[in-house]
Amino acid sequence: MGDEKRRLMVTQLRRSPVFNQAGEELGRLEDLIVKLDGGGYPPVTGIKVSMGGRDVFVSSKNIDRLAPGDVRLNTRALDTGGFQRRPGEVLLAADVLGRHLVDVARARIVQAHDLVLAHVDDGWRLTGVDRSPRAMFRRLVPRRGRPDLRKHAILDWKDVQPFVGHVPTAKLLMPLQRLRRLHPAQIADLVEGATHAEGEEILDAVESDAELTADVFEELDTEHQVEFLKSLSNDEAAKVLERMAPDDAADLLGELPQERRKPVFDLMSATAQHKLRKLLQYHPSTAGGMMSPDYVWVIRGATVEEALEAVRIDDKAPHQLLNTVFVTEPDGKLIGSVSTAELVRARPDRKVEDLELVDCRVNAGADVTDVTLTMADYNLIAVAVTDMSGNLLGAVSADDVIESLVPEEWRARVEASTGV
Q1: 230 & 151 share domain
Q2: Exposure of 105 by Cβ count < 10 A (0-12 exposed, 13-18 middle, 19+ buried)?
């Protein structure tokens, strides 16, 4: 990030006197300007100088020296026209300093208590963020009394992403390609740890990727799901719900205000409506309410090869349910289940019913305790849910059970909200 000897903190430069070529004081440095749309380390394009009660722009080309308490220009006079933001420009002190940023490398929200500038061959660039409490102290004391933290660990600017939705001229979206590096659960953590406006900025960034948006919504806690779904139109909400796992979508639809449930439901596809109707007849805490209606199954008489092909081509079942194949009679009655691992180890031409099937199931009305104990007793990754006649209705995966058992207070993910 450049030569340590040529490194400066933004707080060290603010309010520094600005001198012209003849050594005459013209004003005070109020802010530094960068353009964030180029990627990498953003170049400092100029400074904002308070001069005679006016804010004046000074191009970086006219800066001869940039140092705490001593900013020197290579010109005698300045254009005293009023300062105006230009498209894509961000003011470091006004727009970034003291605000939240996304530490993409560590999937957490951090606060920019100070910003680091380094001098490279083509000028000054923004290279890092100091999020330490001492950096915050440095912002609150007079410049001459501020401690020098050159040896303090700094977050590399390439690892962070600022929120720019509040910047009137930035017209920049948080880049989707950076967020795609994170797991949906990590993005959800970021949304939950941010302010509402910041959370909306993150969700706006992933909006163009419908599948990722749905995955992130599934990972959000109920409060945030409802909060952000309320900001969507009925059509937008229906599209998000359609792409979510049916059990999660059913739970979230039930959390919407009564007057919005039917309009949103009616805008969903017939297939999605059919799946949700099956789930909405059960209480969310029962096996029927927790189950997914999408699972991998074959009929008695199918071969191992056909069962593995069913796993391979399935594009509906959650990933957690691809580890289990359910076997039924032609009329839908459950015979048992077999793990995908067992299928891989078996001869391709064997009939699935000739394998050692697990005949274990829970009734749709079973509560979460019964489901949990059954899965624990049989060491199951997924368990079949049946009606009173033994017909296969759906399947509950281990992650569904874990999610239902996690205490609400554990959902306050400390790392994301505090940046620890």
Answers
A1: no
A2: middle
pLDDT band of residue 138 (cuts 50, 70, 90) is low
Q: Does one domain contain both 235 and 203?
A: yes
241 with 341, same domain: the answer is: no
Q: Are 386 and 295 in contact (CB under 8 A)?
A: no
**Same domain, yes or no: 189 and 305:** no
Task: Look at 122 and 104; give whichever has higher pLDDT.
Answer: 104
From residue 352, give the alpha-carbon distance in Å to each of 279, 392, 393. 29, 17, 20
Tell whether 245 and 326 lie within a shared domain: no
3-state SS assignment for residue 259 = helix
Task: Tell me whether residue 165 is in a domain.
Answer: no
Distances (CA, A) of 165 to 170, 199, 370: 8, 11, 47
Q: What's the rounded Cα separation, in Å, for the pair 207 and 232?
A: 11
CATH number at residue 84: 2.30.30.240
Contact 232, 225 (CB under 8 A): no
Same domain, 16 and 124: yes
Q: Which domain does 230 fall in, by range?
A: 176-281
Distances (CA, A) of 21 to 31, 143, 273, 337: 20, 24, 73, 83
Number of separate domains in the chain = 3
| DSSP letters for 355-415 | S--B--EEETT-BHHHHHHHHHHHT-SEEEEE-TT-BEEEEEEHHHHHHHHS-GGGGS-HH
Q: Which is higher by pLDDT, 406 or 390? A: 390
Of 35-44, 131-140, 238-247, the range with the lowest mean pLDDT is: 131-140
The model's pTM is: 0.72
